[in-house]
Write a structure and sequence with these properties.
Blueprint: E1 3-8, H1 25-34, E2 41-43, E3 48-50, H2 55-58, H3 62-73, H4 80-107, E4 115-120, E5 126-136, H5 144-158, H6 166-201, H7 205-211
Antiparallel strand pairs: 1-5, 2-3, 4-5
Helix pairs in contact: 1-3, 4-5, 5-6
Length: 218
């Protein structure tokens, strides 16, 4: 039994992210800045005064702005780059699942259940980045008409997704070849039957051709 595979690519071109991303020097400095005690107090015998605001508070430097930016980017433990990768992985996951489910839905009993290749995102979740559905493209033994109907279903299943892959198109081509072969077998069976009927009724091949019943096929 020949079994094809309807697949989406398992390659995902999202940026690779280090497990320690977002916990570098800038993140550590931002945390130290957040834990600072603030202006110092000068405590005298009878009065308490505060020091004037620092120059950096009045005129933020590039370094302080960068620290604040790094702190904002580390919300929920992810940097902006990591959040973007998560969005891309989630979109790819939806695309892959829809693609493989389309194969399975149309393929029906000739198709297997979708299987997926996963990639772990920076948020710790697993995202489908590739997948496949196995599909039976073998002929129905002794029944070319059933084989024709099966080949049509397989071809529709292969081309069901909005963007069929190269592998999907190869399976569709195999289904087309299977249908053509089955049609040839069906025609040969009909010719053999006609000859048998003609011989039993004493008809010549020409007489048989003149009186052959018309067969309407889809």
């Amino acid at each position: 039994m020949l079994v094809g595979s309807l697949a989406t690519s398992s390659l995902f071109n999202g940026a690779a992210v280090s497990p320690t991303a977002g916990v570098g020097a800038s993140g550590a400095e931002a945390r130290r800045a957040g834990n600072a005690t603030g202006p110092e107090f000068a405590v005298g015998a009878s009065t308490t005064t505060t020091a004037n605001p620092s120059e950096e508070a009045l005129n933020p430097t590039t370094e302080s702005v960068n620290r604040a930016s790094a702190e904002r980017q580390s919300i929920n433990g992810l940097t902006e780059q990591e959040r973007q990768q998560v969005r891309e992985l989630a979109a790819r996951d939806r695309e892959v699942r829809a693609h493989e489910q389309a194969h399975a839905n149309v393929g029906g009993r000739f198709a297997g259940a979708p299987s997926y290749t996963f990639q772990r995102g920076p948020d710790g979740r697993q995202y489908a980045v590739g997948g496949e559905v196995s599909i039976d493209v073998s002929p129905v033994p002794g029944d070319p008409q059933a084989t024709i109907e099966k080949a049509r279903i397989v071809r529709r299943a292969a081309l069901a997704p909005a963007e069929p892959s190269a592998q999907d198109r190869r399976v569709a081509a195999e289904a087309t070849a299977l249908e053509q072969q089955a049609r040839a077998e069906l025609l040969a069976q009909e010719n053999d039957l006609d000859e048998s009927i003609g011989a039993s009724n004493g008809l010549t091949p020409q007489e048989l051709a003149d009186y052959r019943p018309i067969s309407l096929r889809a």
